[in-house]
Design a protein that fits this description.
Length: 276
């Protein structure tokens, strides 16, 4: 599997695992645990969560599900905007660490932009980094103008911007992705298969039949074709995890990309960043 470089040249796998709504249904807990551990074994070692997911329930689930795997994973969580101040971020991070049963996060993200001044959030992030509670920090759901504001406030050490990006949501290609590429800031694509809504699309199905693949694999391969993008699809079953991993080895042909471009045109003007 190819890697994506963070700003300090640390390499992380280009395909990780999302966890939104995991751990909320007790009847699915065993299967979800098996799926996420299998994903780690397959090299999908970037695990993304947030304090918002189940109001901490997902982090608690991961703390149990990833027992004895901490040294193998690149663990990501996200802080609520209202907790992104000097006074509150430390406590929020400590709560996430406690639920995740770890002493540090590899990456801590501001979940979306709120009312706390960015300079204050950056200061709080850097304090956590100095205390070794986080190794890197970044943002999520920031559009190009937000990223410009972040850097103008001293955010040059931002490691990534996690955004909604898939073949059906191509708005970031107009300005945000080129802006990030120009500054060697990778994007993390959440919902890279559109929460499954794209999978009945006839064009995706046609490309998948031609390539002997599943539509979700074509959708993932389309996202992963960009060198500076890391995708974090969610999978709650072993079969789905294996399909995701195989997508990392699927290289779309020019004909495939052309067909998808026709069905899902690239933006020709600014499109406000969508978010879930």
């Amino acid at each position: 599997m190819r890697s994506v470089l963070l700003q300090d040249d640390e390499a992380v796998p280009a395909l990780g695992q999302g966890t939104w709504r995991m751990g909320e249904d007790p009847s699915r807990r065993r299967g979800e645990t098996a799926a996420i551990r299998a994903g780690v074994d397959l090299g999908m070692t970037v695990i993304d969560t947030a304090e918002m997911y189940g109001e901490g329930a997902c982090e608690t689930f991961l703390g149990e599900a990833l027992a004895n795997l901490r040294e193998r994973i690149f663990l990501v969580s996200k802080v609520y905007p209202q907790n992104a101040s000097r006074a509150r971020m430390g406590r929020a991070c400590d709560s996430s660490l406690r639920r995740l049963r770890t002493d540090h996060l590899d990456l801590y993200l501001l979940h979306w932009r709120g009312t706390v001044p960015l300079a204050e959030t950056i200061e709080a992030m850097e304090a956590l980094r100095r205390s070794a509670k986080i190794r890197h920090w970044g943002v999520s759901n920031f559009d190009a103008d937000d990223m410009g504001d972040l850097l103008s406030q001293g955010g040059q050490d931002c490691a990534t911007n996690q955004i909604l990006y898939n073949v059906g949501r191509r708005g970031p290609e107009f300005d945000l992705l080129p802006w990030l590429d120009g500054r060697s800031i990778p994007a993390m694509a959440y919902s890279p298969v559109g929460q499954g809504h794209l999978l009945d699309d006839p064009t995706l199905k046609a490309v998948a039949r031609r390539r002997g693949a599943e539509p979700l694999q074509v959708a993932l391969a389309w996202v992963l074709r960009r060198a500076n993008v890391l995708a974090i699809p969610k999978a709650s079953s072993l079969e789905h995890v294996r399909q995701n991993r195989a997508a990392a080895d699927l290289v779309l042909a020019p004909k495939d990309v052309e067909q998808l471009d026709h069905a899902f045109p690239a933006p020709r003007q600014k499109v406000p960043l969508a978010m879930l």
